[in-house]
Amino acid sequence: MTINEEVQVIEWAPSVFHAIKKMDGITPEMIEHSLSTDSNAKQLFKAKESAGKSGSFMFSSFDKRFLVKTMNTSEQAVFKKALPQYLDHLRNNPKSLIAKIYGIYTVKMEDIQEVHILLMDNLFLHVKNKKREFDLKGSIINREVHMPFDKKDCLKDVNLQTITKDKKYLRF
Question: Can you give the pTM of this predicted structure?
Answer without folding.
Answer: 0.72
